[in-house]
Each structure stands twice: as C-alpha cells, then as structure tokens.
Amino acid sequence: MKKTTISFITVLVLLFGASNATLAAGNTYQVKKGDTLWAIAKKNNITVSQLKSYNKLTSDKIRPNQVLKVSATAKTAAKKTTAKTKAPAYKEITVRATAYTASCKGCSGITYTGINLKKNPNAKVISVDPKVIPLGSKVYVPGYGEAIAADKGSSVKGNKIDVFIPNKQRALQWGSKTIKVKVYIKN
After folding, report:
1. Lowest-pLDDT range, 67-71, 84-88, 174-178?
2. Quick one: which of 22, 72, 131, 143 is 20 to 30 A from 149 by CA?
3. How far, in Å, are 15, 18, 21, 28, 46 from residue 7 at the CA level?
4. How far is CA 108 from CA 1, 8, 40, 58, 65, in A?
5. Which domain holds residue 138?
6. pLDDT digits (tens, 9 = 90+) for 22-68
7. CATH code at position 104
8. CATH code of the domain covering residue 13
C-alpha cells in the first residue's frame, strides 16, 4: 500500500511539474545565435515594443541563451481582456518617402535592428529618424502597406522615410513622394 501511494504521488508530481514546465516554455523563448528582437517578436505574433516591455529591455541588444518572456503575464492578460476594446491609436505624419534596396555595392543588407533584408526580401521595413518615428513602431505607408520601423540611415533625418524594396528597378520606380503615414501608438 505504501509503495502504491508513493508511486501515485510521484506520478502526480511528475504530471503537474511537466504541465507547469510546458506552460512556462510557451511563455518564454531562448535566444539563439543570429536572433533579433524583430524576428523573435514576429515568430511570437507580438511587437518589438511588447517584447521589450515584457522583458524590461532598454536597448535592442540580446545575447544567445538569454531567456525572454514572449507573452504577457496572466495578470496583464486579464487586464487586457477586461479592458474595453478600442481601435488602434495612431498619429499621422506627413513625410517625404523614398525607397532603398539591400543589393547596392557595399550594402550589408542588415538593418540597424538586425533584420537581414537579403535573407528576408519580402520584409516590410522602413528606415526612419528615430526622433520622429521610434524604432520598432508599426507604420502604415500608403502604396506600400504596413511596415516595421527597423532601420535608420545617415540621410534619413526629420520627416523622411526610406521604404525597403528588394528589387532595384522597383525601388527606382517608387521615386520620391510626399505622403501621410500612420504611426501606430503602443497602448
């Protein structure tokens, strides 16, 4: 009888221990070499800002084997569920929009936030002045779609953006235009 009770308790401990580990594993991500905040956020269906917030990160630097939270705590999730659903808030900014490509001579193809544009040619990325549009922001660009502000450049100052287009000919066709973009504000 004692042996059966101990075996039963051991099974229960293992079951509950494993289920808690599985739950914890679903809420965290272990950084691998070459990972970026943007790629981790995209993989987990969250924004870079949320990822930084969950982990109290003040920079974009991460290191291999670092464990990051990739979802809100139960307490935060409960608050969001009980809060009234509102349309996403945004601010409109008039900008001068040009295009760039990663296939120019001397271009690494790696954005400031670590996105490899040569390996991800379909990525919707814009280069911004972080003083005007914070890096990691989601931005709607007419004629381009929803993009992530993931790069900055020496010629991108003030109300100017550069949209990433993988094809040089199509980038040239984009030209230079004045448009109103929507910068989504994180709640």
Report:
1. 84-88
2. 72
3. 12, 16, 21, 31, 42
4. 69, 59, 21, 25, 26
5. 90-184
6. 334 568 889 998 888 888 888 888 888 888 888 888 888 888 899 99
7. 2.40.40.10
8. 3.10.350.10
112 to 100, 134, 147: CA distances (angstroms): 14, 12, 15
Is residue 101 located within the same domain as residue 175? yes
> Is 175 or 71 the better-scoring residue by pLDDT?
175
Burial of 155 (C-beta count, 10 Å sphere; 0-12/13-18/19+):
exposed
CA distances to 27, 56, 69, 133 from 34, in Å = 21, 21, 18, 25
Pairing of strands 145-151, 125-127: parallel
| Number of C-beta neighbours around residue 181 at 10 A | 24
Q: Express each pLDDT in 85-131 by its tens digit.
A: 566 799 999 999 999 998 877 788 899 999 999 999 999 999 999 99
Q: Give the integer Cα–Cα distance in Å for 169 and 186.
A: 35
